[in-house]
Write a structure and sequence with these properties.
By secondary structure, the protein is mainly β. The protein has 2 helices and 13 strands, in the order αβββαββββββββββ. The chain binds copper (II) ion.
């Protein structure tokens, strides 16, 4: 069951307020490559489905600083050109950072239905994309062995931080290439790219991946994290919740 962009934002705001007024937000906007962009500059285009306006700022930069706050439905896009989000900064053009959050079903207002925000987003083709995902969901979910491993990221690893708020710079980052099967809440998996990122509960993960050529690619969570006898119904079977569309644009 799709949830409107506006109500997602409001849910996220509510969830974050409940989490202690954390300053943060997932921007679904990803800036186009900007050859002259410098770290700290704001970049561009945002807005996925639902259209009007971009998403809120409040991004956490590579240096761990936080800024901005979530804003309402008419939020402005703040996408920074940042390098070195996780692991070694890859060479090449500077691009924005793809920020995502994972809310528990309780936070999303639908019991048993955890939620990725944003679920549908756009990234630039032919780019090495930095990604940061904060998992506010506190429970592990069953995952088959294949999806406990990190695949398709730059270096074959992800950086895991044990914090989801506050001073992330204080959380000692760990570079990992797999996680224990009982320590995974969700995965961010793009089968077409061979990309699989297991995500622990209550953690932040950072990584880079190559976006490849233009096209539309489905991402999906492969952890049985929702409702039904095997946890694969509900949010797992609904577009805009535990699966969505990554549009890769030139
Ligand atoms: Cu999931």
């Amino acid at each position: 069951m799709p949830v409107s962009t506006a109500s997602r934002r409001s849910m996220l705001g509510t969830a974050l307020a409940a989490a202690g007024g954390v300053i943060w937000l997932a921007g679904c906007g990803v800036s186009r490559p900007q050859p002259s962009a410098k770290p700290g500059t704001t970049g561009g285009a945002a807005g996925t489905k639902g259209g009007a306006g971009g998403t809120a700022g409040g991004a956490v930069g590579a240096t761990g600083e936080t800024s901005g706050t979530t804003s309402g439905a008419a939020g402005t896009s703040t996408t920074r050109a940042v390098s070195g989000t996780g692991g070694a900064a890859p060479a090449g053009r500077a691009v924005g950072v793809l920020y995502m959050a994972i809310l528990s079903g309780g936070m999303a207002g639908k019991k048993g239905w955890p939620l990725f925000v944003p679920a549908d987003f756009t990234v630039p083709a032919g780019s090495t994309m930095p990604v940061e995902i904060r998992c506010f969901d506190n429970g592990a979910a069953p995952v088959s062995a294949a999806y406990t491993r990190v695949t398709g990221t730059v270096g074959g690893t992800i950086t895991v931080l044990s914090q989801i708020s506050g001073n992330l710079a204080a959380a000692s980052p760990q570079s990992v290439s797999s996680l224990a099967a009982n320590k995974i809440a969700h995965t961010f998996t793009v089968t077409a790219l061979g990309l699989n990122v297991p995500i622990p509960p209550l953690s932040t993960v950072r990584f880079h991946f190559h976006t490849g050529g233009a096209g539309s690619r489905v991402w999906q969570c492969m952890a049985a994290c929702s409702t039904g006898a095997n946890g694969t119904s509900g949010a797992m079977a609904a577009d805009g919740w535990m699966r969505g569309t990554m549009l890769v644009k030139t």
